Each structure stands twice: as structure tokens, then as C-alpha cells.
Structure of Glycosyl transferase family A:
Amino acid sequence: MPKLSVIIPVYNGEKTILKTVESVQKQTFFNFELIVINDGSTDSTLELLAHLREPRMKVLSYENGGLPVARNRGIANATGEFITFIDADDLWTPNKLELQLAVLQQHPDADAVYSWTLYLNEEGTAFHQGEQLYFQGNVLPQLLLSNFIASGSNIMIRKQAIASVGYFDPTLRSCEDWDYWLRLAAHCAFVVVPKYQIIYRQSTTAMSSKVEVMEKHLLIVHERGFRLATSELQFLKNQSLANIYEFLAHLCLNYISGTNGAKQAYQKLRQAIVLQPSLLLTKKTQVLLMKIGLILLFSPKLSERILQEVKTLRAKNLESINTYS
């Protein structure tokens, strides 16, 4: 039976690390090693991990180097034929490893597999579904348009593919996963497990201060991605850039409070529409415009109450996650 390496990079993850490790321990596939890279944590992360009785787990501690460096350290210590990552605040459904490995074994020509994502609220009480996507084979065109993989807690890779792609870029402080998936897609075929298996925890911690950092790195990765692409794919460049600005508008609206956030969101969305006017015909853009309008027209408190009601209606109870396994 092939051996898997599961890598968890963690920095000050005392609030969530045990739940993340537990979701790995509950996997229906058992033959894996669990490598936890402690990236210079100063909280009780190490103490919590020390109390776990898990013979497949080893905890390696380093000075803080950032997420890409921590993932690279995990790769360097991995002995498995297949490698996958999970961030220290995310979760998996119990069959994630089993089904992803099975699909890779059924497709020896593919080097990477992904699944669908559920988005969990910060309190861990409710979630909503990400898109159901079926992109397979050469997925570079779709990845150039957006990071549909959604997070670093998703993909499983054949270790042999890393030899041709290399490691995560340690100079990137954001979007390093999209950069890596693009490089993978330029060399490797992808396959999909058409099930919701990744539970991505959304966090508002310092997000407002990160919007500018994210914009900077999104544009860097966007430029790099199109350098990888053939001339036949360059026509996607404007659409890709428009998707970036629409995503940034969403971040501004959700993580920068009041009219300031709405004004910044409008500026980003306007840039997106100038680049790709057809966005105005999409439901996603229309909903964003409606939210921005609500905040600018009404008091922040009233608009927040309306938007919260909409979120509550969309969200599903956490208990129903079990139906996706």
C-alpha cells in the first residue's frame, strides 16, 4: 500500500490545531505519516501536540519562516509517495485521503488531485458550499482565470512531480498556493474527486490590513502565470485580472467595516468591470453591487443587519457536513 505524507504547517494555532489533527486521525485511509511543522509558535501549540498519542505523527520545530517555508520544510522531511497539506485551522471529511489517492491510482498520467471546498464560518458553527467544478487534464487555462483549488489544504501530489516543479516560493507572503498550483498545472495533469472534502475556515483576523498585501501578491502571481502560458492563452489575461479585482472587492466588503469598506469595494469592482464589462451580466457581480449599494445608501448598522440575515439564510448547519462524506 502506498505511503502518504500529510504536512501541517502551524504558527500559533492553539485554538484549532487539535481539531485539525483530529480530522487527519479520523481518515479512513490509515497508512500515512503526519508531519507537523511548528513554525516558531509562541503560544501553547507545542504543549497541546505533546499530549497527543499518535505514533504516525512527528513534530518538527523551527524558527518562524512563514507558510511557504514551513510547507517546504515538510516536503523536505516527507518520505511518502504522495504528499498533501492541511493548514492548522482547516478540516477534512474522513474519506479525503482515501478517495483522492484512489483517483490518482486510477489515473497514472495525472500528478495532482483536488476536491470541492466547504467554507466554514469563524465560529465553526455554519458553512456554505464552494463551486462544483470538474476541470481535469490540462487545467492551466482555468487556473489562470482563478485559483479554483481555493486553499493549500486541498491538493494531493505525487512526490515525483515536485522534482520538476520545485518548492513553494518563500518570497511570497500571500497567494503562494495559487503560484504553486499554476506551476504544477504547467507540467502536470490534474484530476478531481467530485465531492466536498475540504472544510476551509474563514478568518477575519487582520484581514483588513492584508487586502493590500494580497492585491500586491495576486498581481505578481497573475503576471508569473501568464509567463508560463502559451500565446494561445494570453487572451485570458484581462478576464483573469478582472476576476482578481472582483475578488478584492469581495474582501473589502467583507473585512473592512462600514462605508470605508464599501467605497474600497466599489473602486475594485469598477476596475474589474472596466477590464471585463460582461461581468455586469453575472449574478456574482450583481450581488456585490447590491451589497455595496445597501451599505452606501443605509446606515452601516442597518445594512449589516440585512446582510447578516442573508448570510444566515445561505449558511448550513455544521452538523450536516457529515452528509458529504
